[in-house]
Every structure is written in structure tokens, then in C-alpha cells.
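call fold(seq) -> C-alpha cells
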Amino acid sequence: MNKLTIRPAMPSDAPQLKGAVIELQDHERRLHATRLPGALIADAYLAWMQQQANESGALLVAEIEGTFAGFAAGWIAQEDSIAETQDSNSFGYISDICVLAPYRGRRIAAALLEHLENHLARAGVTRIRIGSLAANKPARACYERAGFTAYEVIYEKVIGGRDAP
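ret:
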């Protein structure tokens, strides 16, 4: 593989990050009709994601020989579930991971996941969670190869059959 670098995102990465958010969102939109077009949400979503990562996590960029290849974002999430243990209520959450199409199949997503896992472990979390659309089989396979297992499964039923991809 060409030289892969994983590093924290910088302000100069904003255009590439926005493009990747659009690509990721549009990919998910093709998988499920509930997703809005990437261009409509990219600026607000990127700002929200950066804010979350800055507070208690990281926004990482993957480069191949200096060229933007993808990103991942994650942070510490805190919930207040009475029925769960403390280490389950405070966990690392990986919100997004995107590898641009020309760079897929090179285990870049696995490298991004590993870097985020190490970052979050240093912050003291013992559990990390990541979600995926059920129809996104390649993403789910990547997460399973990286050691993730199903934690909860959310089912959805559309009443009246109006929601079709």
C-alpha cells in the first residue's frame, strides 16, 4: 500500500471533509430514504461533528501520500440509563467514518478505527460503539473485522408503506 498517514484534522481540511460528508450522506441516502441530500446538511453536520470531537474526542484524516483519502470522527458519549453499568453509560462513540471511493479496499477504515480506538482508550473509555444502516453491508463487515459485535438492533416499521428507498 502507498504510504498511509492518519492525523488530526486541520482547518485546511475543511473542503475535503465537506466533500466526504456529502459523499457519505449521499451513499446512505441511496440505502435509505430517510437521509437528506448531502449538500443540504454538510455544513451544519460538519460543524456539529467538529464541535463534538473537539470537546472529548478526535476528528482524524487519512491521507495516502499527502492526498485526502477519508476521515473518521469519534468522542466520549455519556448516557444516563438506569438499567446499564457505568462503563456502558460512558463510552466511545464513533459517529462517522468515510473512505473515498478510489481508496476503498486498502484497510484505511480499519486504520482509522484503530487510531480512534487508541485515542478513546487513552481517555479512559472501555467500550466503543458505532452504528450503521442495516443495508450498509460493507460497513458492517468492516466493523466486524475490526472486532465490533452487535450490541443493540433497532427495528423500524413504516406505517402506510410510504418510505421506500
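The beta strands are 4-8, 57-64, 67-78, 90-99, 128-130.
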